[in-house]
Amino acid sequence: MKAIVVGAGVIGSSIAYRIAEAGAEVTLIDANRVGAGTSATSYAWVNACEKINPRAYYTLNMAGVRTHRRVAEEEFKGSNWLHRPGVIQWQSAGAEAEGFGDAEGDKVDVLRSWGYPAERIDAKQLAELEPDVDPATFEQEGAIYYPEDGWLDAPVYAGTMVRTAIARHGLKLLLGHKVTALLVRNGAACGVVLQNGETIEADVVVNSGGRWANEVVGAPDFELPLAPTVGLIAYTTSSDTSLRHGMRTPLVNCRPDGAGRLLLRANDIDKTVPADSDPVPANPAAQKLLERTIKLMPALKGVAVEAVRIAIRPIPADGLSAIGPHPALKNYYVTVTHSGVTMGAFIGEAVTAELVHGRQVPELAEFRPARFFGPAV
Ligand SMILES: Cc1cc2nc3c(=O)[nH]c(=O)nc-3n(C[C@H](O)[C@H](O)[C@H](O)COP(=O)(O)OP(=O)(O)OC[C@H]3O[C@@H](n4cnc5c(N)ncnc54)[C@H](O)[C@@H]3O)c2cc1C
């Protein structure tokens, strides 16, 4: 089988690796570099605890969490991309979290009943875990500690998948080439058209173009309805903070990003950022993030914003994943989703099970692109 995967983000790289490993002849095409899309501008928390409603979405994300752990800690022992110091979440931030709204009962109880490691912590425990946090910013009802959670350096992960697939499984990598259309014959995808006019043929095309997925296809019939949102991340200068955990607080979400630098973001601030906003340290949203971070951890006074990146989240219209065959075209498969960092490694294996081995993956059953297009006529 000859396959083309468009997009070398965390998802496309995972798919290309696994399909090539399964014996297919794979070409991975990216307009830019490996891992340079949204995967490079992500909070990258590998978790299922923020996806508890609907339950099927939790199950899908949990499959993502487990697969990343297995890949990073067993298959690629000694790998350097998955960091798991734990994540701390103030409870009000949990109530605001996407998908938490309708779950019955206390979040910690729900998660624990599903086997997700989560503990309630009080101000004293927080002070032991993160001494730089000002206790005055902490809420009386306590916080949730996810001791096994962490984040992924997604470009590093994607790079390893791609390099390993080239070395071991003959993956062909085409960088700096934009796909402008699908090549279609008799109602089936049979390849892609590049911006330079060249065509590449294959038996199956996988569109992992993320937020740009609709620019890959070249015809409205093959698009997906998307509801993208803007995300701004600010990176601080190096500091002497002892912060170790990922933090999800009502003020700011922040975590270490190497050499004492912190990565900062906040959902409510994201909503105020225009997509064409300047990604510069002086950006008012970035300065607001810094102000809030210093309120959370006064020891950071004097630290500055060093860089800002703005990304658009690849989100299908109903907010859930769209992974599977596109109903308008045979041999054409799409993978557009938020939480793609969490799910990337699992999607690689799931797509391979479906496309190469013909085995339907139950975790994907509720997330098919077909749901957007009504019953077939
Ligand atoms: C601020 C923010 C915070 C986030 N936080 C989290 C989080 O905590 N946890 C989590 O799991 N997820 C999080 N996400 C979401 C996650 O980052 C994305 O779901 C994920 O990175 C998507 O990966 P992808 O491989 O689909 O897309 P991308 O990484 O964008 O890769 C798509 C690739 O396709 C290429 N491409 C596009 N069009 C073409 C074309 N026409 N021809 C050739 N190549 C093309 C691009 O160059 C790019 O490299 C966050 C996102 C944002 C923006």
TrEMBL record:
The FAD dependent oxidoreductase domain, residue ranges: 3-352
Keywords: Oxidoreductase
Cellular component terms (Gene Ontology): cytoplasm
One Gene Ontology term of the molecular function aspect: oxidoreductase activity
InterPro entries: FAD-dep_OxRdtase, FAD/NAD-bd_sf
Keyword Oxidoreductase part of the UniProt annotation: yes
Residue intervals passing through the bilayer: none
Coiled coil: none
Protein name, as recorded: Glycine/D-amino acid oxidase
Organism whose genome encodes this protein: Devosia enhydra
